[in-house]
Design a protein that fits this description.
Length: 757
């Protein structure tokens, strides 16, 4: 996406449907007078009294233990500089969103109009009763060092400057793993660094704490080498790395360097400099958006180099999101009073070690089958690897306990890890790997209702995100007119292809092929000609069948079964499949939930239940989620013997016998599926652990009613319905679908097309 498009899209995102990215939501019911009396006067006094008696109780009766203050004065905001606290607020809200999405941590963003570091220290320290931890953000150097050090000394909660330590932790993990590959020891390597700011100094400090020798560090900044006795552009932090040397330039000191660490500006490291480095040089060029050297330029002169950047479009992205949500998660969960060196080191090692662990089939599937094997192009985990929260947070929590800063030690670490695993599903990030995979290998997607405004709006975002190559089926003049009317930027020929039902050179081939398929289904040649001029669902399906499109979406208007019939006429069933079904995903505030069969089979048999369950489970795995399946009924483990209950009971038995690897249980009530404690009370020997994430319904009425009720009442984002069991990717949507829903369905269709080849 170019800068202009990004600017426009970002403003719309921040302004609609209401300004900003955050809101406050109550976690307790407030529907009755009793609720009000418990939440406020007089009941709230009880919570106040227990805190007076024991301040640690604040963690049990308030939200403090899961609340982080993201604090800035706006003096060093991203690449924007000193734009002030008010202009910095969107960034802080963004940081809050990342905390919530990645680790379930609540945030108040605090923008303070104060540049005096000592006054700022007083303000931040006074906030201690409110928060379980403080994240300092976008405060310029050297004031950020002063503020962090003073606040850490004064406050009895973690104070962490992510610009410094988050960058340092992820950088250190990447360097440790690069040295593992090259066979070099950290205590032996020569490291040259550009950038003497907060992040650069923190990276050096972190690496020194892990064994890098201070005398082997050569720090350069805008004035050249930091040397002993230099006065220009010096700070106390830089002075710690001053070299006793006559060398002055980066070009001079880079010779025989094992590691280059760049946190400076674009194109600082030249090809001729890279050529002078030691064997198998490790290069971290992390300036954004333009790195110190482009990876292809570095490899041109040194094919043996290992290179990482801050960019997502190259391997080995060094991204703070690998660290900060999870180090805070671990610290908060044990009530840590500090984020100390032991916890940071544990975070480094957890990130580094995780890259060396063979990724599961689930993780590989989530990233489009990409081979995530430790090596030169996979130094550190992917930013959205669902294992991060488990491995990093638990390592940090354990380090806090071992180092004596935990006030609420975890007794059962395995149970804690299990709770972190369940968060991955609840986080709502379930679509991220799908989009990542789609973006890497976009496929041709045909839209049967190409004239619809929702489709056109969706295509604009699809083009901007580069996840598919759209093919719009519709009249060109109508499509062009509506694009102009809506003020969209997409253009035929450049951004999408148009198939005109009224005039297409493939028309004769299409109708003859359709007639060949349907001649024994009551379709005459004349009818075939008419259908191929008027039925865009058939046109889209035929394009997929003939390899002119890789996937197809339809159903934006009209009846579901009408579209389904035409899709099945042309594309048919997949190999070994007896019937199709519809899988719907709801991304709810409480978590993500798959429901099946929401649109196809009115009253499936036990055998059909078994087949749809297996197909749905495979689809759930493609989202990077291990399915936990509940077969639902009005009966709870044999409490009734009505036909629908017996059917689900029989299906459960067949699934246990034929697919013992599946975690599936039933028949059961919905509350038993979603509430493990409720289930354990009535059926403690269940094969299902934790909360179900895939619900299988006994009939179409139950599934569809539940799906639409949940979607409407919760404001959930829906994905699908996804048609499973077809020979080729084709999904029938519903008239209620939004542009965002079409966008989501497109990503799913692209990834499915990638899998099917």
């Amino acid at each position: 996406m170019d800068d202009e498009k990004l600017h426009e899209a970002a403003l719309i995102y921040h302004r609609e449907p209401k300004p900003g990215k955050l809101a406050i939501m109550a976690t307790k019911p407030l529907t009755t007078q009793r609720d009000l009396s418990l939440a406020y006067s007089p009941g709230v006094a009880a919570a106040c009294r227990v805190i007076v008696e024991d301040p640690k109780e604040a963690a049990t009766v308030t939200a403090r233990a899961n609340l982080v203050g993201v604090v800035t004065n706006g003096t060093a905001v991203l690449g924007l500089g000193a734009i002030g606290p008010l202009a910095a607020k969107p960034v802080m809200e963004g940081k809050a969103v990342l905390f919530k999405k990645f680790a379930g941590i609540d945030v108040f963003d605090i923008e303070i109009n104060e540049t005096d570091p000592h006054k700022l220290i007083e303000i931040i320290a006074a906030l201690e009763p409110t928060f379980g931890a403080i994240n300092l953000e976008d405060i310029k150097s050297p004031e950020c060092f002063i503020i962090e050090q003073a606040c850490r000394k004064r406050m009895n909660i973690p104070v962490f400057h992510d610009d410094q330590h988050g960058t340092a932790i992820v950088t250190a993990a990447a360097i440790l793993n690069a040295l593992r590959i090259t066979g070099k020891k950290i205590e032996d390597v020569k490291l040259v660094s550009t950038g003497g700011g907060a992040a650069g100094i923190a990276c050096l400090n972190q690496l020194v704490s892990l064994g890098l020798k201070r005398e082997n560090v050569w720090l350069c900044d805008i004035a050249g080498l930091v040397w002993r006795g230099r006065n220009d552009e010096m700070t106390r932090e830089k002075e710690a790395y001053a070299q006793d040397s006559d060398l002055r330039s980066l070009s001079e000191v880079i010779e025989d360097a094992d590691v280059f660490l760049g946190l400076s500006g674009p194109n600082v490291l030249k090809k001729e400099m890279v050529a002078k480095m030691a064997s198998q040089p490790v290069i971290l060029a992390m300036a954004n958006p333009t790195p110190e050297i482009w990876p292809e330029d570095a490899r041109e002169v040194r094919p043996d180099c290992i290179i990482a950047t801050g960019r997502s479009d190259y391997p080995n992205q060094v991204n703070n999101v690998l660290c900060f949500p999870f180090i805070f998660r671990g610290a908060l969960d044990v009530g840590a009073t500090d984020i100390n060196e032991e916890m940071k080191a544990a975070c480094v090692r957890a990130i580094a070690d995780m890259a060396m662990i063979e990724s599961s089939d689930i993780v590989a599937a989530a990233y489009g089958g990409e081979e995530l094997r430790f090596g030169r192009e996979y130094l550190i985990p992917k930013p959205f690897d669902p294992r991060l929260i488990v491995e990093v947070s638990s390592a940090v929590a354990q380090a806090a306990m071992d180092s004596g800063v935990a006030t609420r030690p975890i007794e059962d670490m395995q149970a804690y890890r299990d709770s972190l695993s369940r968060f991955v599903i609840r986080s709502g990030l379930v679509m991220k790997p799908i989009f990542e995979s789609a973006r890497k290998d976009p496929r041709r997607v045909a839209y049967a209702e190409g004239e619809d405004e929702r489709v056109l709006r969706a295509v604009q975002t699809i083009v901007d995100d580069a996840i598919a190559m759209p093919i719009l089926i519709g009249r060109p003049e109508v499509i062009a007119s509506r694009i102009e009317k809506m003020g969209l930027r997409i253009c035929e020929g450049r951004d999408f292809e148009v198939v005109n039902p009224e005039q297409d050179e493939r028309y004769a081939d299409f109708w003859r092929s359709y007639h060949e398929i349907m001649e024994r289904g009551g379709v005459s040649p004349d009818a075939a000609r008419t259908i191929m001029r008027t039925n865009t669902t058939v046109i889209g399906s035929m394009m997929v069948r003939k390899g002119m499109a890789d996937a197809m979406l339809c159903g934006v208007y009209g009846q579901y079964r009408y579209h389904l019939r035409h899709v099945m006429d042309v594309l048919g069933l997949g190999k070994g499949v007896h019937d199709v079904s519809a899988l719907s995903l709801l991304i709810l505030p409480q978590g993500s939930m798959f429901l099946c069969d929401t649109h196809v089979t009115p009253d499936p048999s036990a055998e059909e239940i078994v087949e749809m369950t297996v197909l749905a489970a495979n689809e759930v795995r493609n989202f990077g989620i291990e399915p936990k399946i509940a077969l639902l009924a009005h009966s709870n483990f044999g409490t009734t013997n009505y036909p629908q209950a017996v059917k689900m009971r029989e299906a459960a038995k067949m699934l246990h016998e034929r697919y013992p690897e599946l975690e599936v249980e039933g028949e059961m009530h919905a509350d038993s599926a979603l509430n493990p404690q409720s289930r354990d009370r009535v059926f403690p020997n269940s094969r299902l652990t934790g909360t179900a994430n895939l619900l299988i319904f006994p009939n179409l009425d139950a599934a569809n009613i539940t799906f639409n009720a949940l979607k409407t009442m919760s404001g959930a984002v829906s994905v699908g319905p996804m048609l499973i069991g077809t020979s080729a990717p084709a999904h029938v949507l519903t008239p209620s679908v939004t542009a965002r829903g079409i966008h989501n369905a497109t990503a799913v269709a692209v990834v499915e097309a990638q899998r099917k080849g």
